[in-house]
């Protein structure tokens, strides 16, 4: 059933004085230090942290389509509450795609249409965004295009329809394409092979709902990628890295103002900069271990944390050569492989890397560490090299063809300033000094035009653009950074920095989003809408 639902802007942020009582109800004495290279605050667990490297790395199951026809693969995912064992011996309630965390992995082919029906049996509304997808506007997951719970939705009197709007318009009404119970998301996949991911994008509650489990991989393959002799099958491993804190009973610990996620958006004032957890999860497991042969492996690294940045390294290193050979990023294969001593990943960034374990003797234990963490968050996972095998894979010197966007052909430059600001009388996060309003289009780029978009920051802001990827032109007065190669859809914007990107939107007209992917910033107004014309 499809309904149209009006909605009034509502400010749910509270000042420090108002937040103090709420903070006390959460027992936030665990606001601590672990903030090197971060714009966020540490939230510590109330249950003892598990022993690291005690559980095997889980690999999310690949979902089979319900139906295939000549042009399209059809899937159904049921969003439901489930209790899963993340910490040994404890059950963690999650909001899960198919009751899993991470959700099932979907695999699609470039040029072949995929339709995913999402059925919402959760107690809260949801919105699904395919991050990195080249997607028509009405299937992109605009944050007020809600899928209401199949069992009905009544957020309570005085709060509108309950999508929240802690940082939006304060006057008038707005309309979202609201569905009851389920919605079909159609993805044409006229795009390159890439590591995409899907996650919740409900206005003002994205941070809390992703934190509770609503995230999964969606991989796209094409002929160009599959013609290369890269590691595949069991040696092509997705790694969803995120951090969480836990309550005494094993539940996720998150400083939401509204624990039921019904009407009051935002987090307590102590965590407005972002939420860091003290347990590192990889594919939903704490500090797991993966047994590997002495051969090349392809790892699709996704930073799915709400706010945490990572600097990943291998300990010990391989001795000779670089630990990571980067072959791809957000938007698919690079033109040429690039050796990386470390990988710095901001929230939502993806790094496609090859690690050659033949450089290690069987029996060697190799730890992936986080050089931006401390104590338990300085560890990520471990690899145990088991035995030597014949390895017929290789890393070609040329990987993919990338069309270069010529900045000299840009028709205009737009500036987007990401900074703290006034959000209707309260502290919040803004773009160009304005809080998000889903009815207001802050830019109207024409399809086919190349534009330069300049992102400027006060603090750390991972900036994500919907619909089409971009190419980094410069950082400040220099060229692109070490991790800026290829097509990007998210760029790590550091304090007081500006980054220029060249972007060209194609194929689809309609409203899309530009926002900070620190999810606490996003929920507290740091989004802007633009409409392609």
Automatic annotation (TrEMBL):
Keywords: Metal-binding, Oxidoreductase
Signal peptide as annotated in the record: none
EC code: 1.16.3.4
Record's catalysed reaction(s): 4 Cu(+) + O2 + 4 H(+) = 4 Cu(2+) + 2 H2O
Domain of life: Bacteria
InterPro entries, per the entry: Cu-oxidase-like_N, Cu-oxidase_C, Cu-oxidase_fam, Cu_oxidase_Cu_BS, Cupredoxin, TAT_signal, TAT_signal_bac_arc
Example of a GO MF term: oxidoreductase activity
Record's keyword annotation contains DNA repair: no
Species lineage: Bacteria, Bacillati, Actinomycetota, Actinomycetes, Propionibacteriales
Subunit structure: Monomer.
EC primary class: oxidoreductase
Family indicated by similarity: Belongs to the multicopper oxidase family.
Keyword Transcription assigned: no
Record protein name field: Multicopper oxidase CueO
PROSITE patterns, alphabetized: MULTICOPPER_OXIDASE2 (PS00080), PROKAR_LIPOPROTEIN (PS51257), TAT (PS51318)
Boundaries of every Plastocyanin-like domain copy: 84-143, 182-224, 427-532
One Pfam family linked to the record: Cu-oxidase_3
């Amino acid at each position: 059933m499809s309904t149209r639902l009006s909605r009034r802007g509502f400010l749910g942020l509270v000042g420090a004085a108002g937040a103090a009582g709420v903070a006390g109800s959460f027992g936030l004495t665990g606001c601590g230090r672990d903030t090197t290279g971060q714009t966020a605050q540490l939230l510590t667990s109330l249950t003892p942290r598990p022993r690291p490297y005690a559980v095997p790395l889980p690999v999310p199951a690949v979902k089979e389509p319900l139906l295939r026809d000549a042009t399209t693969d059809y899937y159904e995912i049921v969003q439901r509450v489930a209790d899963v064992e993340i910490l040994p011996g404890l059950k963690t309630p999650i909001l899960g795609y198919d009751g899993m965390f991470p959700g099932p992995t979907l695999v699609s082919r470039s040029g072949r249409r995929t339709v995913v029906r999402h059925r919402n049996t959760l107690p809260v509304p949801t919105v699904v965004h395919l991050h990195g997808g080249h997607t028509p506007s009405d299937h992109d997951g605009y944050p007020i295009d809600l899928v209401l719970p199949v069992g009905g939705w009544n957020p309570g009197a005085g709060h509108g329809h309950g999508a929240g709007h802690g940082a939006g318009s304060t006057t008038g009404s707005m309309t979202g394409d609201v569905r009851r119970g389920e919605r079909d998301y159609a993805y044409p996949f006229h795009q390159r092979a890439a590591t995409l991911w899907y996650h919740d994008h409900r206005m003002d509650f994205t941070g809390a709902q992703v934190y509770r489990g609503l995230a999964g991989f969606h991989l796209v393959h094409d002929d160009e990628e599959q013609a290369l002799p890269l590691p595949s099958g069991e040696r092509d491993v997705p790694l969803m890295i995120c951090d969480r804190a836990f309550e005494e009973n094993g539940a996720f610990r998150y400083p939401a103002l509204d624990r039921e996620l019904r009407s009051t958006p935002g987090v307590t004032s102590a965590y407005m900069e972002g939420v860091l957890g003290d347990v590192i999860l990889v594919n939903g497991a704490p500090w797991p271990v993966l047994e590997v042969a002495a051969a090349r492996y392809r790892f699709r690294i996704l930073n799915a944390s709400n706010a945490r940045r990572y600097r990943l390294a291998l300990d010990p290193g391989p001795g000779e050569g670089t630990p990571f050979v980067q072959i791809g990023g957000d938007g698919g294969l690079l033109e040429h492989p690039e050796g990386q001593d470390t990988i710095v990943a901001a929230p939502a960034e993806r790094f496609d890397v090859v690690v050659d374990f033949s450089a290690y003797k069987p029996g060697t234990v190799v730890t992936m560490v986080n050089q931006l963490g401390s104590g338990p968050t300085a560890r990520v996972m471990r690899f145990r090299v088991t035995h030597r095998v014949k390895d017929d894979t290789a890393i070609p010197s040329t990987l993919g063809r990338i069309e270069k966007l010529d900045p000299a052909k840009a028709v205009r430059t737009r500036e987007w300033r990401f900074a703290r600001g006034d959000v209707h009388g309260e502290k919040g996060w803004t773009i160009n000094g304005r809080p998000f309003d889903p009815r207001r289009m802050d830019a109207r780029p024409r399809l086919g035009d190349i534009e330069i978009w300049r992102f400027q920051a006060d603090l750390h802001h991972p900036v994500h653009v919907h619909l089409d990827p971009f190419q980094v032109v410069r950082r400040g007065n220099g060229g692109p950074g070490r991790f800026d190669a290829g097509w990007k859809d998210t760029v790590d914007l550091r304090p007081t920095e500006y980054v220029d990107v060249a972007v060209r939107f194609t194929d689809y007209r309609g409203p899309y989003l530009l926002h900070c992917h620190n999810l606490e910033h996003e929920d507290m107004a740091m989004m802007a809408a633009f409409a392609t014309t």
